[in-house]
Design brief:
Elements: H1 2-20, E1 31-44, E2 54-70, E3 73-84, E4 104-114, E5 121-128, E6 150-160, E7 163-171, E8 184-195, E9 198-212, E10 222-237, E11 240-253, E12 262-278, E13 283-292, E14 302-303, E15 332-341, E16 347-357, E17 366-378, E18 381-392, H2 394-400, E19 405-415
Parallel strand pairs: 12-14
Antiparallel strand pairs: 1-2, 1-19, 2-3, 3-4, 4-5, 5-6, 6-7, 7-8, 8-9, 9-10, 10-11, 11-12, 12-13, 13-15, 15-16, 16-17, 17-18, 18-19
Length: about 425
């Protein structure tokens, strides 16, 4: 992390002599500085991690500098500080004089080359955000106080006015010294937009862990090698909008480096539809049905749990974030309805209802209702808030108890 910070600072110091030179892009500023300050307070009564209510205040600050040392090269460095207010350790005895910054890091630090050798190509190297389609499998996870970025290289080929193809290779941070999560992430993602009302994506993804199994029949083999193939189709016709998506996962993986690997066979499917009731107020009524496969027979040598990889789960499966994190081997069936409304142009309201069921097994995870509101008080400043209620079903009563669980938040974000 510190190495990236030093690298990002070094890039700008080295590029400053070039920035001072004249070029074809002399008009306008050669370095643009932008940023973001976001403060969110959350009240959490989910009892997911402990049998207690939690009240936290989160602060995220970002400062981004964009430079063009030459007309066809863009260099970006974005520093981020993400923290809980008052998180300093009282045992250190520093109190209000504590100036340490353990959460200071480079959120993005990359160089981008546009149209090298006049080819319809964009190359990007370094730490960068990536997002595709509705972010079900790859997204920035904006709700998280830190967000998500990837370390690697990415190329975008503009094959035609209606077709683009992205390919990348990323190195990931392992979750622990024993490293059972993915270490590398590779992919190719093609997007085709033949007309304005239709878009289709086809993708092939690969994540792996090159750590080796230390004992048993799989001695010396990689802990994880997983492939994800799928497609996404979006279209609109008049007031109707529809999105269809599906993916399958294959490969082999182990829960740790000391157990046998299992064969991966998993799938995902989703259909989302909405209709504009009152176009003037952007009032839309929608529905969604999503299925993530679960493992019906644990211990049979086959892992049938679908992984959402690096998706932005918060806005897809209910904003209280209880499911799918607690779904385990059951998989998930999410049946939901939404109602969006903008009473005035600066205000947006969204009401959601979800019924969560297991893809494998009986009973239910529970039901959830979410209400969120956002007010764009000024072009760079937005205030938002929301409240959620979750009624546990039999599958979660042991973990959460039988009572309804609640959460609420209020957030202010200033982009400059």
């Amino acid at each position: 992390m510190r190495l990236l910070a030093v690298l990002g600072i070094g890039i700008f110091l080295l590029s400053s002599p070039l920035i001072a030179q004249d070029s074809a892009r002399a008009e306008g500023p050669r370095i643009a500085v932008t940023g973001q300050v976001r403060l969110r307070s959350e009240w959490d009564d989910r009892h997911v991690l402990a049998d207690q209510r939690v009240n936290v205040h989160l602060l995220r600050s970002r400062l981004r500098a964009t430079a063009h040392p030459v007309a066809w090269v863009t260099v970006v460095g974005e520093v981020q500080d993400a923290r809980f207010l008052g998180e300093s350790d009282p045992d250190d005895g520093r109190g209000t004089t504590d100036a340490s910054a353990p959460q200071l890091d480079m959120h993005q630090a990359f160089a981008q080359v546009d149209s090298p050798f006049h080819l319809p190509l964009m190359l990007r190297f370094g730490r960068q955000e990536m997002t595709f389609a509705n972010e079900r499998l790859i997204g920035v996870s904006a709700w998280s106080n830190t967000g998500r970025s990837f370390d690697g290289a990415r190329a975008t080929w503009f094959a035609a006015r209606t077709l683009s193809v992205d390919a990348w290779a990323d190195r990931l941070s392992a979750p622990s010294a024993a490293a059972i999560g993915a270490q590398n992430f590779y992919g190719a993602w093609a997007t085709w937009k033949p007309v304005r009302a239709i878009a289709a994506d086809v993708f092939a993804l690969r994540d792996d862990n090159t750590a080796r199994i230390r004992s048993g029949d799989d001695l010396g083999r990689r802990v994880l090698g997983r492939s994800t193939l799928g497609a996404n189709l979006r279209g609109t016709a008049g007031r109707l909008a529809v999105e269809l998506e599906g993916a399958g996962q294959t490969g082999r993986g182990a829960a740790s480096d000391s157990v046998a690997r299992e064969e991966i066979r998993a799938f995902m499917g989703s259909v989302t539809a909405s209709v504009a009731l009152l176009p003037r107020t952007q009032t839309r009524l929608g529905g969604v049905l999503t299925v993530l496969s679960g493992d019906g027979s644990p211990g049979d040598g086959r892992d049938e749990r679908f992984s959402t990889l690096f998706g932005t789960n918060h806005r897809l499966y209910g904003t209280i974030d209880i499911v799918p994190e607690l779904s385990g081997t059951h998989g998930l069936v999410d049946a939901g309805v939404t109602l969006a409304h903008a009473p005035i142009p600066a205000v947006r309201l969204l009401l959601e209802g979800h019924r969560f069921l297991p893809q494998r097994g009986d009973d239910a995870f529970g039901s959830e209702a979410d209400l969120t509101a956002a007010w764009r008080a000024a072009p760079p400043f937005e205030i938002s808030g929301g409240a959620s209620a979750f009624a546990p079903g039999k599958l979660l009563e042991t973990r959460l108890g039988g009572g309804t669980r609640f959460s609420a938040y209020i957030q202010g974000q200033w982009d400059f």
